[in-house]
Amino acid sequence: MHFLKQALEKKPLSAQLRENAALLLPLKKLLRGRDFQSIRGDYDLFRRLNEMMGGGAAEPAAAPDLGRIVDTAKGELNFAINVKKVKPFKTFCEVGCGLGAFPRAAFEMGCELSHGLDLRPYPQWEDFRRDANSRLEFFVRDIGEKKEETPGLQYDLVTSFSAFEHFKNPPQMLAAMAALVAEGGFLYANFSPIFNAPFGYHTSDVRVAIRVPWHHLIFSRRVLRRYYDEHDMCNLIKSNDEWLNRWSALDFMNMFANFTGLRLMSLQPFWDLRFYWFARLFPQILPPGLGLEELIINGFRVIYRRD
Known about the structure:
- This protein has helices spanning 2-7, 14-31, 36-39, 43-52, 66-82, 101-108, 124-129, 170-178, 215-218, 221-230, 235-243, 249-258, 276-281, 292-296, and strands spanning 56-57, 91-95, 113-118, 136-140, 155-161, 181-191, 208-209, 263-271, 297-305.
- The chain has 14 helices and 9 strands.
- Helix content is 40%, strand content 18%.
- By secondary structure, the chain is of the alpha/beta class.
């Protein structure tokens, strides 16, 4: 409970408190007398809850603003240097780089060599490579499965952002990433939301959004599948089941704390407290066996160094 007490020292915004207060009475009426087993397969209740909490059809997602996401990536890398005491780096590699914003950010920050690795290519890679010559490169690699396919280099800074919750074998990936860290270099990972977080099923920002916290833990797959089938998004359940590893906060804490391949410098969980009130007021509808701390840890920021 140490982390929970630490998290709750941060007070929610007044606007959030007003929004929560407006939901309390209707939620109490809707959930009175209900428990986890009685609502798990209740599709009508799921729809009513989602509408009440602002879910449903959303505006189509805009095309990503590449300049803006590169600036955000620079902010995160500068945070690592200025706050987390990661040394300035000349060689950089991100594992699970997605669009490629972080390798591009590292290149623009003056890196002599910046690499991005992912399981598949992204069209944005070509945009980010522009004017970069050979200092910025992207590779389709699965370093957790085929070690011989790594670029064969070591780097001052190896990172992973919003990827550890997707890795099928996190310990194997952590070891593979550690092998890419040069002498005196750092490994820096930052990721969320993990599976037991309020929106750990990664469905809050899709075209037909679900806003019910912990909906993937409360309601059955049959209920979720029916909802997305009705909105022509039938592949979403299959995709999420394939690409989310379902590791708990405790799983990640134990893995990072007990990893001996590098020296651990910092292991910091961070929280999603927006629905702390929901978990406290309606614990009977949440799955048994998961503590409150497990439910509100949203992700982790972890840093290692090779001495």
